[in-house]
Write a structure and sequence with these properties.
The protein is of the alpha/beta class. About 50% of the residues lie in helices and about 10% in strands. The chain has three domains: about 80 residues, Alpha-Beta Plaits (2-Layer Sandwich), CATH 3.30.70; about 70 residues, no CATH class; about 140 residues, no CATH class. A four-stranded antiparallel β-sheet has the order 2-3-1-4. A three-stranded parallel β-sheet has the order 6-5-7, with no helix packed on it.
Length: about 325
């Protein structure tokens, strides 16, 4: 039976050598991939091209280590066996553990520093992404855990960034780049993801000579300065879009695939939504850079600007179409 006509794919492997290393490598690889151990030496994954390719690689490594291995596509004999196989991939307990850690963060939040709170958020986001990556049959437990993490992120922002903007309604006005060169721009100090990415976007694509003011309060923004990412600013959240996305649309940059992909990353980290693979890593870098730079937002922009340059270049090289 071809793998693409099967529901499941099975690896049957036997390693008889005395060295534990090949066995440990196999176990670690299968565990990371979320394979279910049906019995000793028998591992199952839902059938798809990625599972088939992965198990073929593991089978090759087993045979090269002197063992024997077979990759076998199959379907369940009946509904009962199908349910039993699916049960082997139930991630409810893992989500429950993650949910407990999210709850603990929210409980401890009043006594945490911003750096500690955001580091814990990064760890929780990475943990949840890892569970979701091997959750082949997602259900209510995943939705509950992701919802709790979004609530925790909002609580952290409410405590440490109380001036987060509220989304306005209406269409986004197209702007002429020539009218926005050599200007002064302002946003709230102690930059986080949307603000630092927006500042990078402004200087990289809109106003290369931009000068930035980092405000203690949005009320401090001078009348002749272009504000972004706060209520009443010239560029801020509109509908479902965060400030980075609004700036991109405003200046006709929303057809740049690299910026669209960066926008999805910024959106997810700022207000939640569709998870992005690089989100946990970027948030970790951002947290470390803030801890390193302290109150130096110019230095933070320089550090994270380099990271965003690299991500942008990488996203341009990924095949795909704008949707």
């Amino acid at each position: 039976m071809p793998w693409n006509q099967a529901t499941w794919v099975m690896l049957v492997a036997s390693l008889t050598g005395r060295s534990p290393n090949p066995r440990m490598r196999l176990w670690r690889a299968l565990k990371a991939a979320g394979a279910a151990a049906i019995r000793d030496g028998v591992y199952v994954l839902p059938s798809n091209e990625a599972s088939w390719s992965f198990l073929r690689v593991q089978a090759t490594e087993v045979t090269e280590a002197g063992g024997s291995a077979h990759v076998i596509p199959f379907t369940a004999a009946d509904g009962g066996q199908e349910a039993e196989l699916r049960q082997a991939f139930d991630r409810t307990a893992l989500y429950a553990e993650s949910l407990e850690r999210v709850t603990r963060l929210k409980t401890d939040l009043p006594g945490l520093s911003e750096v500690d709170a955001r580091r814990q958020l990064v760890a929780l986001r990475r943990e949840l992404a890892g569970i979701a990556g091997v959750d082949f049959f997602p259900g209510p437990a995943r939705n509950q855990a992701e919802g709790a993490l979004r609530d925790a992120e909002q609580a952290v922002n409410a405590q440490f960034s109380p001036d987060e903007p509220h989304a306005t309604k209406g269409a986004i006005t197209r702007r002429n780049l020539a009218d926005y060169r050599g200007r002064r721009w302002a946003t709230r100090r102690h930059l986080w993801v949307d603000r630092v990415a927006s500042a990078w976007l402004i200087r990289r694509f809109i106003d290369p000579a931009a000068q930035f003011l980092w405000l203690a309060s949005p009320a401090d923004c001078p009348a002749d300065v272009l504000g972004f990412d706060f209520d009443g600013a010239a560029f801020t959240h509109v509908g479902p879009r965060v400030s980075f996305e609004v700036l991109a649309v405003s200046f006709g940059l929303d057809h740049d695939l690299g910026l669209v992909r960066l926008g999805r990353l910024v959106h997810y980290l700022d207000v939640g939504g569709v998870p992005v693979a690089d989100a946990a890593g970027f948030a970790s870098v951002m947290t470390g850079a803030r801890a390193r730079r302290g109150d130096d937002d110019d230095g933070l922009l320089a550090d994270i600007g380099t990271v965003l340059d690299c991500l942008y270049a990488a996203y341009l090289d990924i095949p795909g179409e704008l949707s």
